[in-house]
Amino acid sequence: MSRSTSDVLVVGGGIIGLVTAWRAAQRGLRVAVADPEPGGGAARVAAGMLAAVTELHYGEETLLGLNLASAARYPDFAAELREATGLDVGFRTSGTLAVALDADDRAHLRELHALQLRCGLASEWLTGRECRRLEPMLAPGVRGGLRVDGDHQVDPRRLAAALVAACERSGVVFHRARADRLAVVRGRATGAVLEDGAEIAAGQVVLAAGSLSGRLGGVPEEVLPPVRPVKGQVVRLSVPGAYAPFLSRSVRAVVRGGHVYLVPRENGELVVGATSEEMGWDTTVTAGGVYELLRDAHELVPGITELPLTETCAGLRPGSPDNAPLLGPSGLPGLHMATGHYRNGVLLTPVTGDVMADVLTTGELPEVARAFTPARFRPVGVS
Ligand code: GLY
């Protein structure tokens, strides 16, 4: 049984755990990350839309503030990662077009537009013809849409790789094993025991294990984060040179109640996502899931059926009861949360890194993240 000590142990090496580790190391803390496969997790599947405006939902105006704070950080964040690692994360400011295919979709989009304007967001209503002028591959039946130039994209796989490299260069130690159990001594988190038996002692522990965050052994029941897996299936196509430019920006719509989006990358990849399924821990790619994605995407952009299909995959979003993340002190001294980012993990990566570095160095949640304290889910009477 081996023993090592750090100031901070981050349980989970997905993009949220990695950005926490990197930012904490930059503040002079000795940081370790426990994960069998750093840079894996939901970001391997995510399309990487930075869609604070087009993914706005009623009742989520508080989350909107955090999403916008993170979106505003992205240009500098991507540049800093490139400077630190030499790796490009595929940050692209080409914008997003949300379109309607029938009268119901159009009414829904009109309401979204009104909400966006009430929230002071930049979003322009376009007729169907204007949408097609912008994106000639759109179906002739498109009835109107919202042009949001401020909703960008990043490549989550490249982001994860850059964060692993940035952590390595900042002296973060990787333990390539799953954390099995939180170590708690006299009511304080003191590290974790890994599945290979190694004991990692740490002054503070951050639980950043995505959808698995509620499963770490040894965490007292009352502070376990209420995070559940929400399955998303995604299809990847490629756009041969002869078809380029196929789409110049991300295109999305609600079709038969489900969200479908097409995210074109500069390297010719076209990511089509995503299902949203409450299926527990199942990550099977199903014929039905792929069929629905391609059917809905085909209604939006009929030409996709000509494109080579390069990959299908499924991942688990870490859903929380209010669709917003849990950030900061958990109620158990020494244990912090950085989890529950649900549909916004990629978008919220920059602000999460800053917030968690503040928490780990000052013990306080900065103003931008106060509303996301895990205490909002604690049973009444438990401090
Ligand atoms: N934010 C996109 C998704 O979760 O599918």
From TrEMBL:
Coiled coil region boundaries: none
Top-level lineage group: Bacteria
Keywords from the named record: Oxidoreductase, Thiamine biosynthesis
GO biological process: thiamine biosynthetic process; thiamine diphosphate biosynthetic process
Domain FAD dependent oxidoreductase residues, every copy: 7-358
GO cellular component: cytoplasm
Uppermost EC category: oxidoreductase
Keyword Oxidoreductase: yes
EC number(s) from the headed UniProt entry: 1.4.3.19
Signal peptide: none
InterPro entries hit by this protein: FAD-dep_OxRdtase, FAD/NAD-bd_sf, Gly_oxidase_ThiO
MF terms (GO), sorted A to Z: flavin adenine dinucleotide binding; glycine oxidase activity
Pathway the protein contributes to: Cofactor biosynthesis; thiamine diphosphate biosynthesis
Keyword NAD: no
UniProt catalytic activity: glycine + O2 + H2O = glyoxylate + H2O2 + NH4(+)
NCBIfam families in the cross-refs: thiamin_ThiO
Protein name stated in the entry: glycine oxidase
Gene: hcnC_2
